[in-house]
Design goal:
The protein is mainly α. Helices cover 90% and strands 0% of the residues.
Length: 97
């Protein structure tokens, strides 16, 4: 082999080494992005989980309030009905002729 071939081979080897370093750097960068994306997904998943737990808690509280409101409305209706029945039994519907 002559010196020209050796110099050409050396330049090719150097070029390949640079390409390899560049490819390795890109791969490392992509791996870091994947890790960051996984961490971001885990955070979002945890946030949704917490949000759903809060909604379940609110749903239970609303059901409880709904039960109280039904009881209050029932008490009011029974009170009005009782007052009407008392009015009727005491002769409140007597129409003098």
């Amino acid at each position: 082999m002559n010196t020209m071939d050796t110099a050409d081979l050396r330049s090719r080897v150097v070029s390949l080494e640079h390409k390899h370093a560049s490819t390795e750097q890109r791969l490392t960068s992509m791996e870091q992005r994947f890790v960051q994306a996984d961490i971001a997904d885990a955070r979002k998943e945890e946030q949704w989980k917490n949000l759903l737990e809060k909604f379940v808690g609110l749903d239970k509280k609303l059901d409880k309030i709904n039960g109280y409101l039904v009881t209050i409305v029932l008490a009011i209706v029974l009170a009005v009905l009782g007052a009407f029945m008392t009015f009727v039994t005491r002769g409140g519907l007597n129409i003098p002729s």
